[in-house]
């Protein structure tokens, strides 16, 4: 792969297998609720990183937040054993997975590195998922967990982070997310802002379709499961179409790959945020695909773009 970071053989091979496998799944099969539940069960049981694989000094603790007892897990840095009652800063993370898949367990290794490098406790929300819990239930869980951390005065600063769909929920102001702005010291850091326009693919997706592993027909089927009753061009599910940001959107760190299927959508959202006066620190990683920081274990000994990414997030959280 041409770019700032040529792909190692292991990374290229893994992306090829993933891309090929996903494209062989018929969209009609994806739309089946029974298939969705079965895939979730498999994904939740077999994509969790064991705690022994986490960086030294990071402790894993399950917890549930707020009156609704929203489940999730803490990643505590530098040998901390106790769930923080009070901290200088906390990071609340909404994991990705096409709105319906994966779990905090699939993101443990990635989030452990953020926790360690930023010396910041991280809570990963295990939000409800389709088909049993469609929009807006997943985002409501994230919002409730955030409110619990803020209301309990658990930290001077509570940051919200997310990747793919988890990176777009904070950008849904008409869906109630202006509550994020209740904390003037809040910001969020995103692995990438994700699928910002569910209503269709744009030029960037077509250009990168043979590089990135995201497959448009299959992705559209997942979007319909996530939002069966709200039109996919509604800003509550497609925040990339939003134009009003400044009154509620906090300073934002945003990273994305130059070879994303959603590349054009992401850049349109960034331009809209900047035009309306939001403090956006956006960086495109040349030659990288969707959610590339989660795949550093496939890269080998070379630091590639990953060291720079984690250092960048750590600086944002500790500024």
Automatic annotation (TrEMBL):
<dbReference type="InterPro" id="IPR050300">
    <property type="entry name" value="GDXG_lipolytic_enzyme"/>
</dbReference>
<dbReference type="Pfam" id="PF07859">
    <property type="entry name" value="Abhydrolase_3"/>
</dbReference>
<dbReference type="InterPro" id="IPR013094">
    <property type="entry name" value="AB_hydrolase_3"/>
</dbReference>
<protein>
    <recommendedName>
        <fullName>Alpha/beta hydrolase fold-3 domain-containing protein</fullName>
    </recommendedName>
</protein>
<keyword id="KW-0378">Hydrolase</keyword>
<feature type="domain" description="Alpha/beta hydrolase fold-3">
    <location>
        <begin position="91"/>
        <end position="292"/>
    </location>
</feature>
<dbReference type="InterPro" id="IPR029058">
    <property type="entry name" value="AB_hydrolase_fold"/>
</dbReference>
